[in-house]
Amino acid sequence: MDIMFHHHGTEPEIATQTSGSKCINYIFTSPRLQEHVTRCEYLPFYAGIHASHHGAFIDLEESLFGGITKLGMIPVRNIRSTNQADVYEYKTYIHKQFTDHWIYK
What we know:
Elements: H1 3-8, H2 31-34, E1 37-42, E2 56-60, H3 74-77, H4 84-100
Antiparallel strand pairs: 1-2
């Protein structure tokens, strides 16, 4: 399920690329995860990132993260997609959290 449509029911679709007229970027979630999304939005073009697409985010309930209430500073929690060891560690951690908290069900 597209969480943006689920929360906002955007009709007509918003253009998510500067040169387009349609929504081509989505955030999909499982039905179980939808229950824990507290907020989701598209950012204005060029807000924080210089790209031809809208940035987007979802906020999840803290309870999904086993009591962790504060995230590290952005440089500390930055994932470098060119560093395969970091990517593997991140995906392994997220998979464990989703499994432990029944997000996949």
